[in-house]
Amino acid sequence: MDVSYEPPVDTIILDTRKVLNRISPSKTLARQSSILALGTLFSRITGQFRSIALVAALGATGMAANAFDIANNIPNTMLVIISGGILNSVLVPQIIKAKNYSDSQIRLNKLLTFLCLVILIITLILTLAAPFIIRLYAGLDWTSQQIEFAVAFSYLCMPQIFFYGLYTVLGQVASANERFAVYGWAPVANNLISIIGFCVFIFYTSQIYKIDSINNFSVWNTPMILILCLTATLGIIGQSFLMFIPLRKSYFKFKPMFGLRGIGLREILNISFWSFMIVLLEEFVALIFIKIASNAPIAAGVTDTASIPGNAAYTQAVTIYIVPYSLVAVSVATTLFTKMTKSASQNDIKQVSIQLIRAMKTVSVFMVFAFLCLLIEAPHIVKVLIPTVPIYSFEAISSILVPFSFILIPISNILIMKRVFFAFSDAKTVFIYSLPYAAAALVFSCFFYIFFPAAVWTILIAVGASIAYWIDFGFFLHGVKKRLGKDFNYTSLLGFLIKIVISAFPTAILGILIKYILGWTYYTAWWTAFWQFFIIGAVMLITYIAMLKFMKVEQLNFYIKPVISFLKKLTEKKIDKQKN
To answer: What is this structure's pTM?
Structure first.
């Protein structure tokens, strides 16, 4: 995905008893979660402006956009595989464990030196292998010229892997020292640097748009490639270097030290293997998706390939639908995990079940509304968030976003249910229950690839992914029931589901009705799309809240109470000022 790398959202903690000794009080955890959530929010906002600038520079469809999208996203993909399989599994428990020793500084320096060397070697190998990797991800019908440019882009983007890794390594050390602010906010700096660089690219290439298309590679020159790719890489460098600030404040001095003794790698080999397999499985499915999407524009056999949704349009749709998931599901799961690990370490199955059901209900209340908004207002959302997108790209992203909306509910609850197994240090089971998603997604994508026209491949990939996630949701639900036994209350979830469905129906009907009355077309101006989006969304939100109140869904208070508390504080401050 073409999004800036942020703090890991699915970190696996190995030895819960050792970790619990370092856990802060719940009040501190809530404050720390808020800091990270706020940083994520601003990262998403600035990331959206980054997307606007990138779309203005290259468009969201076409040969140039698809070539850069592949080259710029490969480092992120490679880092996800590395961090999911190695960094996130090793760092959290080992850093906390090392701090309990008198020579903690030496142990940490050895661990960090080893990891940085591993990441550097991997980066060099992948950079040399760039031509092969590009061909692995590129569409089967890509021209040799498009592949050559993607490879050129990739050589300048591959160094991002090392700096992504450095950011993760230093960020985990800062987190272990309870310094979360910079870790959560550093991606904002990355986005700001990228925005400036993409604007420079737009200014430099302004004449090209007047005389020819940006998708005509014959008009490209070396400065254009350097400005575009170095901008993306400099953003990651800036993001990683910011992590030295919290390390200095926590009085940790990083000095390269070599040696493996005392860093505890042997004891985490088993869970590292299974966590690596989980990420590898997910990224393999993502590779097939991107492979098909990147091939769609040329395989469609049309003169104007920019009119067909490809991998760049797919990426833009992902950056939009993932926002509610990141802000709510990840925040709730992160907060839940601390409590769940404590209950699991005490073998309190009943408490784990209570925490799981409460979290699933809380997340689902928000995700159902987010699903309705994306489903009904997809064109408005794309128009408002990416005003620079051309009309054909705009239709493409909207068409992909609609089926993506169906993923929000299952993927959020799967994230919560994974926490149950991670709380018991069981990554193998998570891998096993991830297999149905991978199998279903691959079957559907291959079926659509063989039997449907290339023009709709990218849209159908999103459809297949949605169905696959719902299938996997059923498997994870069965797995959790098997793990928790009779303490997992199915009846409570079923009753809640009925209430949510009843609340969602009038919300959806009113939203569709108002959208029809206001009159929507793909040629609507940005300002019109904005106020229509606001009116439709506001009516839907009021209706949804009223229905939840009527159905006595208590999880609504999770979202309403903080708002009421904030408004009360503002009112009290105003009253105090008036008195003074």
So the answer is: 0.70
